[in-house]
Amino acid sequence: MDIFLFNELSGSFRVKKINKMMKKWSKKHKTTTYGLSLIDLEIDKLFERLKPDDRLVIVGGDGTLHYFVNYINTIEVKNDIFYIPNGTGNDFYKSIKKEIKKPVNKYLLNLPTVEFDDRKIHFLNGCGTGLDGYVCSLVNNSEKKGKLSFFKCTYKGFRKYKRTDITVIVDGKEYEFKRVFLASIMNGNVEGGGMKMTPKAKRLDEFIDICIIHKLSKFSLILCFPLIYLGWHRIKRKAVTILSGREITIKCSEGLYMQVDGEDFSDIKEIRAKR
User: Both 170 and 105 in a single domain?
Assistant: First the structure.
């Protein structure tokens, strides 16, 4: 049996759409399908009940995957897991779309973690402090969701966010950055609906990457912003720094906005990410 898992509270969730996906999947793979909502589902007990040939199909966006992986990275997983993108940004899908028809277990397990304020969270795509965390906070607290809302919140973020100085430590080596807009620690190479923040990052290597955008005026950042979607922002070498390592720490004397796979937090002064 193939079990479809979905988040019925997601803005992109539609019952008819899920049913259509299940029927199409069942016909193509010649198997029986069954649907379960992730809301209030005890995922560890679900895996205990699975038969060896049962398969899971996750339907949703990056938020649904983020919720799911923070359960399965603490238990033993033997069954194949497939993924059907059904979100707004779909950054995970964009980074592995050539292999989307295969099981995605290797991309969902053994993920890097980020620690802050007595929390420890696995992240699938990336985490970061600064402007991206502020924009995520605006998006998550806005009444309307979708791409238009994202761009409106991004514009508002550009206008209101104030740059800060931070310290970044990569595998013990310390760096100081002034007037920083954002510092994004990445597992993949894409975040924010397609921004290639760290174009050369690889999900399955031994490293995580960090992109720091600093010393730019707001006007220059607006001009630089479209380049990030192409991965061309690296040409601004004096303002864009990309580093790689197994452990990355960000420190700031002021409380910062922060996001982990789109989940926002505030007043964070130190984070430590590990591969």
Answer: no
For residue 39, what are the domain limits? 2-110
Partners of 245 in the beta sheet? Answer: 208
Q: How many domains does the chain have?
A: 2
H/E stretch holding 70 reads helix 62-72
Query: What single-letter DSSP state applies at residue 28?
Result: H
> 232-271, pLDDT tens digit by residue?
898 888 899 999 999 999 999 999 999 999 899 999 999 9
Q: Of 4, 13, 7, 6, nearest to 33 (Cα)?
A: 4
Asked whether the beta carbons of 5 and 82 are under 8 A apart, the reply is: no
CB 208 within 8 A of CB 169: no
pTM of the shown model:
0.91
Tens-place pLDDT, residues 67-109: 999 999 988 899 999 999 988 889 999 999 889 999 999 999 9
DSSP one-letter string for 197-231: SSTT--TTSS-EEEEEEES--HHHHHHHHHHHHHT
